[in-house]
Structure to design on (332 residues):
């Protein structure tokens, strides 16, 4: 009596549209790198969240409630949490088994849009403040900002993910190939960041050294550094995302979390820089008012420093105070 051979165990693996079995196997082989980079970026975002927590709590404890009437304050709060919304769901479709892959994909995409929108709004307010509310600067930067947000929304609607069979490790989510025009989201970010950076450089090119204020120079230099790092990060990611060579397909997802990381960390610092800038202007205005009162009382005009009018927002306003009474230098 002959015995029939044992039937081998087989499993059907559903493939996303347009994806071959070989491509799926390659994705699984490289998924470990994507999971590591996503986890690393998320860890840094959370670490930075706690680093800046005192600054956020200071807003809630501030006696001046007018700060909550400024839209930029609310954009700061949105930015504080949108980075986590963008990075945390990414862990589920890159490093864990998931039964509803489209949910974290959509949540991460929404978080990315909120991150870009809130950070961009803070950048816009910052460069607008540098130019004292110039309509031309506000209009040009605003145009690039609206175009950037529109591009990110359009691209975010294209992200799709299917739930595959359980795998021995990492994620069972199968991400669909993104549209060939998807890099335009990073291209729009580069255009906006470059616009802001150029306006910032144009405002004080060759003139900042004339200011005697160490605080003013630090405010400007920090602000310029944040703009530069954000622009450089988005240019790097864009150069990777725009590569047509298929060998870069597995690097592209690994580069995305670092763009989110730079956008969140630099955006929050630009807001704090903006607050310090506003405080310096208020101190300068208060000093000028005090000088005016003294002038009226003695009947003689006050001779201001020759650079005060041109660089008023960066002029040292407490140079005559004892060192123990001077305002601290640093971020708020």
């Amino acid at each position: 009596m002959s015995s029939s051979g044992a039937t081998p165990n087989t499993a059907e693996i559903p493939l996303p549209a347009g994806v071959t079995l070989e491509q799926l196997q390659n994705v699984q082989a490289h998924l470990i790198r994507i999971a590591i980079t996503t986890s690393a970026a998320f860890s840094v975002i959370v670490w930075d969240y706690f680093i800046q927590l005192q600054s956020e709590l200071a807003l809630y404890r501030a006696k001046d409630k007018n700060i909550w009437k400024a839209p930029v304050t609310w954009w700061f709060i949105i930015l504080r949490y949108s980075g986590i919304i963008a990075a945390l769901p990414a862990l589920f479709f890159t490093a864990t088994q998931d039964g509803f892959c489209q949910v974290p994909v959509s949540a991460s995409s929404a978080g990315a849009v909120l991150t870009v929108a809130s950070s961009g709004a803070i950048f816009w307010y910052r460069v607008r403040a540098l130019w004292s509310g110039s309509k031309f600067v506000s209009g040009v930067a605003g145009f690039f900002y609206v175009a950037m947000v529109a591009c990110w929304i359009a691209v975010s609607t294209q992200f799709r993910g299917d739930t595959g069979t359980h795998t021995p490790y990492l994620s069972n989510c199968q991400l669909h190939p993104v549209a060939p025009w998807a890099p335009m989201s990073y291209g729009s970010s580069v255009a906006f960041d470059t616009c802001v950076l150029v306006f910032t450089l144009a405002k004080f090119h060759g003139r900042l050294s004339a200011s005697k204020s160490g605080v003013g120079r630090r405010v400007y230099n920090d602000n310029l550094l944040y703009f530069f790092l954000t622009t450089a990060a988005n240019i790097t990611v864009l150069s990777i995302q725009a590569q047509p060579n298929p060998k870069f397909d597995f690097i592209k997802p690994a580069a995305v979390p670092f763009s989110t990381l730079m956008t969140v960390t630099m955006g929050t610092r630009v807001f704090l820089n903006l607050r310090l800038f506003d405080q310096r202007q208020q101190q300068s205005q208060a000093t000028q008012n005090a000088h005016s009162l003294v002038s009226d009382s003695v009947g003689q005009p006050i001779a201001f420093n020759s650079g005060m009018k041109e660089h008023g927002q960066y002029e040292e306003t407490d140079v005559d105070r004892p060192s123990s009474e001077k305002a601290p230098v640093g971020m708020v």
About this structure: DSSP finds eight helices and two strands in the chain.
